[in-house]
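Hey all, quick one. A colleague (J.T.) asked me to put the N,N,N-trimethyl-histidine job into the tracker so the inputs and the structure tokens live in one place instead of scattered across chat threads. No bug as far as I know, just bookkeeping. Sequence used:
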Amino acid sequence: MRELGGDRLRAHAAEALTRARRRSTALTDAVDDEDLVRQHSKLMSPLVWDLAHIGSQEELWLVRDVGGREPLRPDIDDLYDAFRHPRADRPSLPLLGPSEARAYVAQVRDKALDVLAREPMEGRRLTEAAFAFGMITQHEQQHDETMLATHQLRQGEAVLHAPPAPSRRAGALPAEVFVPAGPFVMGTSVEPWALDNERPAHEVHVDAFHLDTTPVTNGAYLEFLESGGYDERRWWSEAGWEYRTAHDITAPRFWYRESGGWWRIRFGVREPVPADEPVVHVSFYEAQAYAAWAGKRLPTEAEWEKAARFDPATGQSRRYPWGNEEPTAEHANLGQRHLGPAAVGAYPAGASALGVHQLIGDVWEWTSTDFHGYPGFAAFPYREYSEVFFGPEYKVLRGGSFGTDPSAIRGTFRNWDYPIRRQIFSGFRCARDAQVRG
Ligand code: AVJ
Ligand code: FE
């Protein structure tokens, strides 16, 4: 991906777009037309909206902007503008139907591939085109993760199938890893597909701290739950308690109690909650309450990234916890290869230089940090990509989940959401301050 010449870039971009489309197609072909246009939850768009929105963004950014081509469907730009229509309102719009949407995205793709084949790609143009194709690939993959979350909310028979995630453990792991005090380089100025909010690279000092070696498991979370954690005001922040009470939150989303045990529904399948998998579908507030109960706290975003990227041997920041090579199936549970997180310890090859496991893949991890631009932030390609979300109402999540494609995750990648959200594949790990010696 780094410094590809024009022809290699063309081949790489075409392959990445094709892979994304295979996934979009699988997720939308898995259900019938009625299911495609239905709103499975007020929190989500109908799947058919995501599909045409993917095409609409591709038309805007690749066909019109990069390619300078005539608009295909200027009449539908407004329908698929995420800022004009909140998710809850999307079903009532005059959306393209399933077959129209499929035909539209295919037409746009033909044009985009034509642009890719003909665009002169040298120098600055090459960098710009590489980014535009990267951005659109990641955009489609992000919506594929969103569509996977919609599938999880859908009622009825299981329609998605995948082999179970690995359950093998890497022997006993220490509960925590110590991260020494000092500076590290956060963010990036060179990662070719990095989005505006990941830029620029800048040095950050981080005090010494301890970080959980793995994400918090269902088993550990159950101890919090069974010891009355949801009923004890003292573990919750004010906003968290208000949310917990108003919505009567008593367990992670999709869990239920039956014959004395805890079960969950995952993509239409009912199963006992597995103790050694990372907990998933918890809100920021639940993560925060658990951490308080455990005598810990959530890591800041800088702490998370230092634990993931900092190599004490070289003093440099890596692209991924394991090094600079792109993720493989040995490194991390990504790419919807499995329909859930793997047991903790299942990816020893993916551990960071400091010895922290499963930072990339499995579950998105809540951090305690509000979403803001880094020093020197410059909105690109438009303010609506990230900048309009900056502020205290969004919390940063890191690391990607089993539903995230490798092309849409890296050590610098930043996701954000409201602290009440839990239909996303969200989990967490805890941190604590290191003892300061006097
Ligand atoms: C980065 C996941 C918060 O889904 O709202 C998709 C990605 N931006 N279309 C989102 C995105 C525009 C974004 N997140
Ligand atoms: Fe989008």
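Adding what we noticed when we looked at it: The CA atoms of residues 240 and 285 lie 5 Å apart. Residues 166-438 form a domain with the paralog of FGE (formylglycine-generating enzyme) fold (CATH 3.90.1580.10).
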